[in-house]
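Table S2 (text version). Query chain:
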Amino acid sequence: MLIKPSRKSLTEILKSQVSLSNVMELMTLDLAHPMRSEKERLRESSLEFENLVEDLEEQGRHTGALLIDKGIIREDQWEDLVKEMAETQTPLSTLLIKHRYIQPGQLEELAEQLKSQMEEEKQAGSSIQSILLEEGVLGENEIERATEKAREEGIRFSQSILELDLVSLPKIAEIFKKRFGIDTVMDLGTAQIEFQVVNLVPDNLMKTHELLPFKRKGKKLHLAMSDPRNSTVIRKIEMITTLEVVPYLADRRVLLKRLEEFVVAPAPVPGRGGAIAGDSPSFQQLLDSDSAVKMVNKIVEGALNTHATDIHVEPQEKGLRIRYRIDGMLYDIMTIPRDMGIPTVSRLKVMSGMDVTERRRSQDGHASYELNGQRYDMRAATLPTHLGEKVVLRILDESSLLKGLNQLGFEEGPLNDFKKLIHLPYGMVLVTGPIGSGKTTTLYTALSEINHQSRNIVTLEDPVEYQLPGINQVQINPKIELSFANGLRSILRQDANVLLVGEIRDAETAATAIRAANTGHLLFSTLHTNYAVSAITALHHLGVPRFQIATALQGVVAQRLVRLLDPDTKVAVKPSPLAQKILGIDENTTIYEPGRDSTAGLGTGYSGREGVYEVFVNSEAAQDAIISGESELDVQRVAVEKGMVKLHEAGRKKVLDGKTSFEEVSRSIVLKED
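Corresponding C-alpha cell output:
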C-alpha cells in the first residue's frame, strides 16, 4: 500500500492526542534536511510542477483552464502568462510566483491538487472504457483510436467516441446514467431555449467550458455540458446564479452548434443601404451588456451559422419570439424578454434603413451583414400587429446561385428538356410553383447558363434579390409608375435578346409578355400554379387567346423543394402500407427516413434541399390540343405521351433513390396512385 507523506508539521503531530493515525503521520513526516535550503525546496517543487504541466499537455489538457477553474487566475491573465512564457522562456511556476498569483509555499500543494484531479479524470475515463470493453461495444483498437483523438484535440473520451461515430448517443447516455447518475439531453438540437435562461451564465464561461443553460425550473438550472463531471465549473455557476445546477451530458457537436446561436463575437457591418456601420460593441462589452446591438448580432449570426433563409421576429404576450426558416421549415429558436422587444425591433429597423418612429405602417428595407469574410444581403419587411411590430428578414446568400443546372436536382431527361428550352432563340418559358419553391433560383441559374457577351439580357424584378454580373436588372417601382407592364414595354425598345419578367400578375403584363415572345425575344417569367400545364389555363384566364398561347409558349417547368436526408445518418425502413400503395412497391422494398441521432438540420435528420421538377415541352400535338380548347388533363396526357415526367412521379423517384423520405415528399407534393 502506498502511504502519502504527512502534510502536518512536527509540532502539530506532537501536540495531538496519541493515536494510530498520529503514529502513521509521524512515520511519514517529510523532515527537512538541516542543510537543505528553502531555495532548494522551491526548486524541487517547481520542477515537479513543470513536469506535471508537461504531463497535462501530453494528455491534451489545458493547464490554463485548470488554473482558471480553481480561481487562481483569470482568462486574460492566462493569456498574458502564455505570451510572457513564449517571449522570455520563463517556466510557468516562476511566473505564477513572480506575479503573486500564488505564494512559493503553495506551489507543491497546487501540484498535488492538479495531480489528484488528473487521477480522478483518468479513473472516470478508464471506467467508461472498461464498460465499453466488457459489454463488447468497442474493441481495444477502437478505444486506442478514440483515446488518441481525445488526447490530440483536448476533448473528453466520451465526446471522442461520439465524434468518431463509434458509439451512439443513447449508449453513452446509458453509461453516464449507470456510472455517474448523470442524465443526457437528447433533443438539444431542437429544444426551444429562452434567451433569459442563457443570459444567466456569462458568455466567456459558456464558450471556454462548452456548456449551455437550456432550461430553468424553479431554483434549478439545467445545464448541457460536454463534460458534466466538471464539478469546479458547476460550483462556479452555482455561485454566479445562486441556483442549483443540474448537469446533463450533451453531444459536443450539437452543443457547439447551439452555442453559435447565443455566444458570438460581433461582426462589423459594411455601411451600405442603411446597414449597421462601425457601431458594434467590443467583445468585453458583449459580456457585460444585453444591448439591442448584441441581441441583433446574436439573432442574425445564429441564422447565418444554421444556414437559415429567413428570420421571423414576432411579438408575443410573453416576449419577442425568434424563429428561423431552415430548409423550408420554421423552428422556434428563443424568446426575448418583453423589455428587450422594442429596442431589438428598432435596431433591426435602423440596420435596414427604415423609419424607426413609424410603427403603424408596413415598411420594407435592406441591410448588409458580414460574417467570416463573407457578405450577406438581407431584405427586411415589417408588419404592425396588435402586440407590436413583426419583422421578417430574408437572407440572400449569393453563394447559393453558384450552382449549375446539374446541381438543382433535375433528373437527366427533364434536365435535357429544360436546357433545350433556355437555349431557344425566342418564345416564352415559364417556371411555376408556390411561394418558396425555388423558382427564382431556377431562373437565375438559367440566366447564368446562357449569359454571354453576345447577348443583351434585361430583367424586371420586384425586388431585385441577387446581383448578376453582366445582366441589366431593373427594380419595379409603382411610385413612379414603373410596373411590370410599363417596364416590359420600355425593355422592348432596348434591343434585348433575353427578357426576365419577375411575375405575370395581370392581363396587361401577360399580353405584353406574349407579344415579346412572338416578336423574337426569349422571355422567362413565373406563375403561381401547381402543375406545368396549369400555366396554360392561367394565361387564358388573364385574357390571352389560346392560339397566342400555343404559338408563344415553348415550355413550362413546375417545381417543388424537398429536404434531403442526411446521408450519414439516414435509416433504412420498411414502407408503410400507405407508402406501398402510393409508391407502387411491396414491403420488401427499402426506403429511408431521418436518423434519430442525426445532428443535421437542428437534429431533424435532413440536410439541404433539392428541386423536384415537371418539364412540359409544347410539342405540335400539345399546340393542337391547346388551340382546340382541350382540358388540362387532355394536354397533360399528350405531354406524357411525348415523354413528360409528372411531378408526383419525380417525387416518387427521389424517395426510391433514397434521397428523401416518403413523408417529406408527401408534405410538398400531392402523391397519386398510378
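Notes on Table S2: Confidence is low (pLDDT under 50) at residues 30-36, 264-290. The longest helix spans residues 107-134.
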